[in-house]
User: Which sequence fits this backbone?
């Protein structure tokens, strides 16, 4: 049973074919397609399928990263995945980007896994982040995804009870200096190299969700996880809600 996974939340886009029975990646293709995502994504999908010697008819499920991330890239990737799932009559499962990144980390029992990603170029020390407790070998998210300055994140972590903090993802410039106070009171594990979101992580997170609840998402109700307002919303001073419609809405 092969799944197609899409990760389009940042500058590096990736597509993977994942074997759900063997729980391993068959093929993964990555490319920098931030400004050309709409044009390049179909070609990346085709290239990944060829590398995996897999046809669209062989796919059992479409998995897609939901964000947070680049406002436009998240929207383009999710729209593509929805259209593909409906055209192929395949189920779709959305995977929150930070959850997928956290699952790729090696957390310590009783500790905390903290995935972080840069939020926007205009604020180089601001990050998207989330807290995942490690309980009985499984990750349990504590609270919602959020965005804040990395120094504020360190302050929040100092008040947590977990003795071990494992970071995953991409730390901002100057993070080591800001982490010095946290390292004095906690055991802190950092990624050796920047760990960008990948389609393989999305497939793994989607598979975990499927094990807990083997039901696909409704492609109409599946929406991105936008933690921050878009640049247009900030400029105009408005906030657009992208919540899923409730039953009966829009009917006369």
Assistant:
């Amino acid at each position: 049973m092969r799944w197609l996974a899409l990760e389009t939340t940042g500058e590096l886009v990736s597509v993977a074919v994942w074997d759900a029975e063997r729980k391993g990646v068959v093929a993964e293709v990555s490319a920098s397609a931030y400004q050309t995502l709409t044009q390049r994504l179909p070609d990346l999908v085709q290239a990944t399928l060829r590398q995996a010697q897999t046809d669209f008819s062989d796919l059992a499920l479409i998995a897609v990263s939901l964000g947070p991330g680049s406002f436009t890239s998240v929207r383009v990737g999710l729209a593509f995945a929805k259209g593909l799932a409906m055209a192929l009559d395949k189920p779709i499962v959305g995977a929150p980007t930070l959850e997928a990144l956290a699952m790729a980390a090696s957390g310590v029992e009783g500790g905390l896994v903290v995935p972080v990603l840069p939020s926007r170029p205009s604020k180089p020390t601001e990050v998207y982040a989330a807290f995942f407790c490690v309980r009985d070998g499984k990750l349990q998210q504590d609270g919602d995804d959020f965005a804040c300055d990395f120094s504020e994140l360190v302050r929040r972590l100092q008040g947590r009870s977990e003795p071990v903090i494992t970071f995953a993802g991409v730390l901002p410039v100057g993070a080591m200096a800001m982490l010095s106070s946290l390292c004095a009171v906690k055991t802190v594990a950092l990624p050796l190299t920047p760990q960008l979101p990948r389609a393989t992580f999305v497939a793994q997170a989607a598979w975990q969700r499927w094990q807990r609840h083997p039901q696909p998402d409704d492609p109409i109700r599946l929406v991105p996880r936008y933690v921050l307002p878009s640049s247009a919303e900030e400029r105009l001073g408005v906030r657009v809600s992208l919540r899923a419609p409730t039953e009966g809405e829009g009917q006369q």
User: Anything to note?
Assistant: The CA atoms of residues 126 and 150 lie 6 Å apart. Helices lie at 37-51, 71-88, 97-103, 150-158, 175-183, 199-212, 231-236. The chain has two domains: 2-97+197-236, 105-189. The longest helix spans residues 71-88.
